[in-house]
Amino acid sequence: LESYYARNSFNYINKFNDLHDLNVLIGQDIRYIDRKASNFTGYGLQYDKGLTPFTTTTIFDKTLSQGTDYFGLNNEFERTVSFYGKATYAYDNRYVFSATGRYDGSNRQGQTSSSRWLPTWSVSGKWNAKKESFLKDFEKLNMLQFRASYGLTATAASNATNSLVILRSAITDRNDLSTRENYLNIEELQNNNLTWEKQHEINLGLDFGFFNNRIAVSSDVYQRKGFDLIDFVRTSGIGGQLVKIGNNADMTTKGLEISLSTKNIVTDDFTWSSVLNFSAFKQEVTKLQNRPNALDLVDLTGGSVEGYPRNSLFSFDFTGLDDRGLPTFNLPDGDDPITGANFQATDNILSYLKYEGPTEPNKTAGFSNTFSYKNFDLNIFISASWGNKIRLNPIFSNQYSDLDVFTKDFINRWQIPGDENKTNVPVIADRTLNLENPNLDIAYNTYNYSTARVADGGFIRMKNISLAYNFPKNLIEKLGLSSFSLKALTTNPFLIYSDSALNGQDPEFFQTGGVAYPITRQYTLSLYLSI
């Protein structure tokens, strides 16, 4: 990585007649970034024998025959420039007004000036009502502020780099090595109109405190209307690319954020304070050019549809087991209720797919309590989130092998006629059942993505527990230190609540997959001292 960054700014601050405060800032920054990546496979390097190379030409014959490379290079270039300014005026610290503006340009956007360059702005104001004369006599109320802001913000999407056509040089894969040659592969077509993702946001806030801020509340409500959002769209393939990326989506988000802090007990030796945070939002995709298929919507991460939140999870409607233990579903008329699901369908799919909810939680909360007794400090922090749905891992199939590992779900599977009235877990299909139903794999795959395989994503977790001891001041002074303390911390010690349908699966780990680690439990013992 080679990066250069230069910033210039001018700041003017002045106070007039002890009533008027003015703060003006103007500036400019420019960023130059080159990213270069290389890879090399050192065939025959003996790691256990002094890193001595010991190779043979046959490995290169194999590599060339497979059409792969044993080394490679990749370059990326990013150039951005910004001009910005901000002016803030306050009268008697009661009325505060602010305005900001930016003008950004980036080579990651399209070639047209309207795509590459973008002006953004915001205006805001605050009224410190406590300083008004009619509230000065309310001694118990020591803070009351009203805030409001509105503006246009933007970000450059990291998943879209096709403002110019992206060409990759490659070598034809042919059996006869003498006929191999270089060629250019069109990885992505040019999008001249690729531009920033933008949103208009309005925010209203209220802050107040009582009893010397022993009770303090900060709250905000907001609405964000995003437009020119980046998304994929399936096309007919004309031009050489089936799936294209561009600014083709709009989305509206409305939300609420509240923070409550209290000092519950305050004495000479003991104090107890609490902080409660809560946030919630409602989201709706208002414009979407892409037409998702059924698999896009029922997959683990969900999909986006107009009128629903981003990454909404849908399911095939499971209607129970038949007398053979096979799953049945509510599908369009004329389709087989067992094997008739079409995962590639795009027409009228919302008429039979059931909406479960968003895969991303839209409500979060945190509750922190701090207890101080003499030299000891104990902090307990609990976090929670809810409002989302989780697709359980697809573990069911019409055929299994000795390499498959069965979960607890299979204990309650269908085994004899009549079990369909007691369980929703399908039978382990034998050879006869597979021969009688050649498309039985579709039935079990549909079951994996049905309403029977969905859990609630809400959870409550004990996030942190810490205990600190601050050594006595006389000991600190004798040691010639300015501070000396010992702290024990445990992170993610246990889960307080989650849906039993998860069967022990961590609700925060459901989309990580692969070889990634789940949420880990950590214990830390720290000694802090300063001179």
* Total beta strands: 25
> Which strand order spans the largest sheet, edge to edge or round the barrel?
1-2-5-6-7-8-11-12-13-14-19-20-23-24-25
Shape: globular
pLDDT below 50 for ≥5 consecutive residues: which ranges?
A: none
Helix content: under 10%
- Rg, rounded, reads 31 Å
Strand-pairing-aware structural class: mainly beta
Number of helices: 6
Strand count, sense and barrel status of the largest sheet are: 15 strands, antiparallel
The averaged pLDDT comes out at 89
Strand content: over 45%
Rounded to the nearest angstrom, the distance between the terminal CA atoms is 38 Å
Compile the SSE list and pairings:
Layout (H helix, E strand, L loop, with lengths): L1 E15 L3 E21 L4 E2 L5 E2 L3 H10 L4 E21 L3 E12 L6 H4 E12 L12 E15 L10 E6 L10 E7 L8 E14 L4 E20 L8 E24 L3 E19 L5 H5 L13 E5 L1 E4 L5 E3 L23 E6 L4 E11 L2 E11 L2 E3 L39 H6 L3 H9 L5 E3 L2 E12 L2 H6 L4 E16 L23 E9 L1
What does this protein structure show overall?
- The protein is globular, with a radius of gyration of 31 Å.
- By secondary structure, the protein is mainly beta.
- The chain has helices at 57-66, 113-116, 294-298, 431-436, 440-448, 473-478, and strands at residues 2-16, 20-40, 45-46, 52-53, 71-91, 95-106, 117-128, 141-155, 166-171, 182-188, 197-210, 215-234, 243-266, 270-288, 312-316, 318-321, 327-329, 353-358, 363-373, 376-386, 389-391, 454-456, 459-470, 483-498, 522-530.
- The chain starts with a strand and ends with a strand.
- The longest helix has 10 residues, at 57-66.
- Strand 5 and strand 6 (95-106) form a beta hairpin.
